[in-house]
Amino acid sequence: PMRAFNSLNRVGASALSNEIAAGSVFFAVGGIWWLVAVLGKMPPVLGKVWLLISMALGVAFIWAMTLVYQIDTVPTWYNGYTTLAFFLTAFLCGPVFAALLLRIARVPFCSVTFASISGLALVVCVTVIVLQGLSLSTIHSSVQQASHLAPDYGMLQVWRIVLLAAGLGCWLCPLIRRREPHTVGLLLGVVLVLAGEIIGRGLFYGLHMTVGMAVAG
Fold first, then answer.
1. What are the residues whose beta carbons fall under 8 Å from the beta carbon of 78, sequence distance 6 or more?
2. For the whole model, what pTM was predicted?
3. 66: how many CB neighbours lie within 10 A of its CB?
Protein backbone atom coordinates (compact mmCIF):
# COMPACT_ATOMS: atom_id res chain seq x y z
CA PRO A 1 0.00 0.00 0.00
CA MET A 2 2.86 2.40 0.76
CA ARG A 3 4.07 2.06 -2.83
CA ALA A 4 0.65 2.29 -4.47
CA PHE A 5 1.43 5.67 -6.03
CA ASN A 6 4.44 4.14 -7.79
CA SER A 7 1.96 2.64 -10.24
CA LEU A 8 1.44 6.15 -11.62
CA ASN A 9 5.12 6.70 -12.39
CA ARG A 10 4.73 5.60 -16.00
CA VAL A 11 1.50 7.33 -16.99
CA GLY A 12 1.58 7.78 -20.74
CA ALA A 13 4.03 4.92 -21.27
CA SER A 14 2.46 2.01 -19.38
CA ALA A 15 -1.05 0.74 -20.14
CA LEU A 16 -1.50 -0.36 -16.52
CA SER A 17 -0.47 3.06 -15.19
CA ASN A 18 -2.86 4.70 -17.66
CA GLU A 19 -5.69 2.45 -16.48
CA ILE A 20 -5.09 3.27 -12.82
CA ALA A 21 -4.85 6.99 -13.57
CA ALA A 22 -8.00 6.97 -15.73
CA GLY A 23 -9.92 5.02 -13.09
CA SER A 24 -8.78 7.34 -10.31
CA VAL A 25 -9.83 10.46 -12.22
CA PHE A 26 -13.18 8.93 -13.19
CA PHE A 27 -14.09 7.86 -9.65
CA ALA A 28 -12.89 11.17 -8.19
CA VAL A 29 -14.86 13.34 -10.63
CA GLY A 30 -17.93 11.10 -10.53
CA GLY A 31 -17.78 10.80 -6.74
CA ILE A 32 -17.55 14.55 -6.22
CA TRP A 33 -20.52 15.10 -8.58
CA TRP A 34 -22.58 12.53 -6.64
CA LEU A 35 -21.68 13.99 -3.24
CA VAL A 36 -22.41 17.60 -4.23
CA ALA A 37 -25.66 16.53 -5.96
CA VAL A 38 -26.82 14.57 -2.91
CA LEU A 39 -26.11 17.56 -0.68
CA GLY A 40 -28.22 19.70 -3.02
CA LYS A 41 -25.38 22.12 -3.69
CA MET A 42 -24.91 21.38 -7.40
CA PRO A 43 -26.22 24.11 -9.77
CA PRO A 44 -28.43 22.48 -12.47
CA VAL A 45 -26.40 23.69 -15.47
CA LEU A 46 -23.05 22.84 -13.90
CA GLY A 47 -24.45 19.48 -12.81
CA LYS A 48 -25.34 18.53 -16.38
CA VAL A 49 -21.91 19.56 -17.69
CA TRP A 50 -20.18 17.75 -14.83
CA LEU A 51 -22.25 14.63 -15.50
CA LEU A 52 -21.30 14.65 -19.19
CA ILE A 53 -17.64 15.01 -18.25
CA SER A 54 -17.98 12.08 -15.81
CA MET A 55 -19.54 9.94 -18.54
CA ALA A 56 -16.72 10.81 -20.96
CA LEU A 57 -14.17 9.90 -18.30
CA GLY A 58 -15.98 6.59 -17.78
CA VAL A 59 -15.63 5.78 -21.49
CA ALA A 60 -11.95 6.73 -21.32
CA PHE A 61 -11.52 4.44 -18.31
CA ILE A 62 -13.02 1.48 -20.17
CA TRP A 63 -10.80 2.21 -23.16
CA ALA A 64 -7.74 2.33 -20.88
CA MET A 65 -8.73 -1.04 -19.41
CA THR A 66 -8.92 -2.64 -22.84
CA LEU A 67 -5.40 -1.45 -23.70
CA VAL A 68 -4.00 -3.34 -20.70
CA TYR A 69 -4.96 -6.59 -22.43
CA GLN A 70 -3.86 -5.60 -25.94
CA ILE A 71 -0.61 -7.57 -25.61
CA ASP A 72 1.02 -8.53 -28.89
CA THR A 73 2.49 -11.70 -27.34
CA VAL A 74 -1.01 -12.94 -26.40
CA PRO A 75 -2.66 -13.48 -29.81
CA THR A 76 -6.02 -14.53 -28.36
CA TRP A 77 -6.34 -11.12 -26.67
CA TYR A 78 -4.55 -8.94 -29.20
CA ASN A 79 -7.60 -8.16 -31.35
CA GLY A 80 -10.75 -6.08 -31.59
CA TYR A 81 -12.84 -8.70 -29.77
CA THR A 82 -11.13 -7.76 -26.51
CA THR A 83 -12.06 -4.11 -26.89
CA LEU A 84 -15.63 -4.98 -27.84
CA ALA A 85 -15.98 -7.34 -24.88
CA PHE A 86 -15.21 -4.61 -22.34
CA PHE A 87 -17.57 -2.07 -23.89
CA LEU A 88 -20.32 -4.67 -24.34
CA THR A 89 -20.12 -5.49 -20.63
CA ALA A 90 -20.85 -1.83 -19.91
CA PHE A 91 -23.78 -1.73 -22.34
CA LEU A 92 -25.22 -5.02 -21.07
CA CYS A 93 -24.83 -4.50 -17.32
CA GLY A 94 -24.93 -0.72 -17.00
CA PRO A 95 -28.45 0.12 -18.23
CA VAL A 96 -30.25 -2.64 -16.33
CA PHE A 97 -28.34 -1.81 -13.14
CA ALA A 98 -29.17 1.87 -13.60
CA ALA A 99 -32.82 0.94 -14.16
CA LEU A 100 -32.82 -0.97 -10.86
CA LEU A 101 -31.30 1.92 -8.91
CA LEU A 102 -33.63 4.49 -10.48
CA ARG A 103 -36.62 2.25 -9.82
CA ILE A 104 -35.65 1.93 -6.15
CA ALA A 105 -35.23 5.72 -5.95
CA ARG A 106 -38.55 6.22 -7.79
CA VAL A 107 -36.88 8.42 -10.39
CA PRO A 108 -38.65 8.44 -13.79
CA PHE A 109 -36.53 7.82 -16.88
CA CYS A 110 -36.87 6.54 -20.44
CA SER A 111 -36.70 2.79 -19.87
CA VAL A 112 -37.46 1.86 -23.47
CA THR A 113 -34.45 3.74 -24.86
CA PHE A 114 -31.95 2.18 -22.47
CA ALA A 115 -33.51 -1.27 -22.75
CA SER A 116 -33.17 -1.01 -26.53
CA ILE A 117 -29.47 -0.21 -26.12
CA SER A 118 -28.96 -3.33 -24.02
CA GLY A 119 -30.97 -5.41 -26.49
CA LEU A 120 -28.78 -4.20 -29.35
CA ALA A 121 -25.69 -4.91 -27.25
CA LEU A 122 -26.89 -8.50 -26.80
CA VAL A 123 -27.19 -8.94 -30.57
CA VAL A 124 -23.67 -7.57 -31.05
CA CYS A 125 -22.44 -9.82 -28.23
CA VAL A 126 -23.81 -12.94 -29.92
CA THR A 127 -22.16 -11.88 -33.19
CA VAL A 128 -18.82 -11.37 -31.44
CA ILE A 129 -19.08 -14.77 -29.75
CA VAL A 130 -19.64 -16.52 -33.08
CA LEU A 131 -16.88 -14.65 -34.92
CA GLN A 132 -14.38 -15.06 -32.09
CA GLY A 133 -15.16 -18.76 -31.84
CA LEU A 134 -14.43 -19.17 -35.54
CA SER A 135 -11.18 -17.20 -35.25
CA LEU A 136 -9.78 -19.43 -32.50
CA SER A 137 -9.09 -22.22 -34.98
CA THR A 138 -6.73 -19.90 -36.89
CA ILE A 139 -4.59 -19.01 -33.86
CA HIS A 140 -1.87 -21.36 -32.72
CA SER A 141 1.75 -21.56 -31.70
CA SER A 142 4.24 -24.33 -32.27
CA VAL A 143 3.03 -26.04 -29.10
CA GLN A 144 -0.52 -24.83 -28.51
CA GLN A 145 -3.84 -24.48 -30.33
CA ALA A 146 -6.10 -21.65 -29.16
CA SER A 147 -9.26 -23.69 -29.68
CA HIS A 148 -7.97 -26.26 -27.16
CA LEU A 149 -7.60 -23.72 -24.36
CA ALA A 150 -11.31 -23.81 -23.53
CA PRO A 151 -12.77 -27.19 -24.56
CA ASP A 152 -16.23 -26.18 -23.31
CA TYR A 153 -16.12 -22.77 -25.02
CA GLY A 154 -19.25 -23.38 -27.10
CA MET A 155 -21.38 -24.77 -24.28
CA LEU A 156 -20.34 -22.06 -21.83
CA GLN A 157 -21.05 -19.33 -24.36
CA VAL A 158 -24.52 -20.79 -24.92
CA TRP A 159 -25.14 -20.63 -21.17
CA ARG A 160 -23.82 -17.09 -21.17
CA ILE A 161 -26.24 -16.03 -23.92
CA VAL A 162 -29.14 -17.73 -22.13
CA LEU A 163 -28.36 -15.91 -18.88
CA LEU A 164 -27.95 -12.56 -20.64
CA ALA A 165 -31.19 -13.00 -22.58
CA ALA A 166 -33.09 -14.09 -19.47
CA GLY A 167 -31.70 -11.19 -17.46
CA LEU A 168 -32.59 -8.58 -20.06
CA GLY A 169 -35.94 -10.32 -20.52
CA CYS A 170 -36.80 -9.50 -16.90
CA TRP A 171 -36.56 -5.86 -17.95
CA LEU A 172 -37.82 -6.00 -21.52
CA CYS A 173 -40.90 -8.19 -21.12
CA PRO A 174 -42.82 -5.78 -18.84
CA LEU A 175 -41.92 -2.90 -21.16
CA ILE A 176 -43.25 -4.82 -24.17
CA ARG A 177 -46.52 -5.24 -22.26
CA ARG A 178 -46.42 -1.47 -21.55
CA ARG A 179 -45.90 -2.00 -17.83
CA GLU A 180 -43.21 -0.74 -15.51
CA PRO A 181 -40.87 -3.55 -14.39
CA HIS A 182 -40.97 -4.44 -10.70
CA THR A 183 -37.94 -3.95 -8.48
CA VAL A 184 -37.65 -7.69 -7.82
CA GLY A 185 -37.71 -8.43 -11.54
CA LEU A 186 -34.99 -5.87 -12.21
CA LEU A 187 -32.90 -7.26 -9.36
CA LEU A 188 -33.21 -10.76 -10.82
CA GLY A 189 -32.28 -9.35 -14.22
CA VAL A 190 -29.13 -7.74 -12.83
CA VAL A 191 -28.09 -10.99 -11.14
CA LEU A 192 -28.61 -13.03 -14.32
CA VAL A 193 -26.76 -10.54 -16.53
CA LEU A 194 -23.86 -10.40 -14.09
CA ALA A 195 -23.74 -14.21 -14.00
CA GLY A 196 -23.56 -14.30 -17.79
CA GLU A 197 -20.77 -11.73 -17.87
CA ILE A 198 -18.82 -13.61 -15.20
CA ILE A 199 -18.87 -16.65 -17.47
CA GLY A 200 -17.66 -14.47 -20.34
CA ARG A 201 -14.85 -13.01 -18.26
CA GLY A 202 -13.79 -16.49 -17.12
CA LEU A 203 -13.60 -17.63 -20.74
CA PHE A 204 -11.62 -14.52 -21.63
CA TYR A 205 -8.92 -15.29 -19.08
CA GLY A 206 -9.07 -18.97 -19.97
CA LEU A 207 -8.04 -18.10 -23.54
CA HIS A 208 -4.72 -16.65 -22.42
CA MET A 209 -1.79 -18.04 -24.39
CA THR A 210 1.64 -16.73 -25.29
CA VAL A 211 3.23 -16.60 -28.71
CA GLY A 212 5.82 -19.29 -28.07
CA MET A 213 8.09 -20.07 -30.98
CA ALA A 214 5.59 -19.24 -33.75
CA VAL A 215 2.07 -17.96 -34.22
CA ALA A 216 -0.25 -18.12 -37.19
CA GLY A 217 -3.63 -16.46 -37.45
1. 70, 71, 72
2. 0.87
3. 18
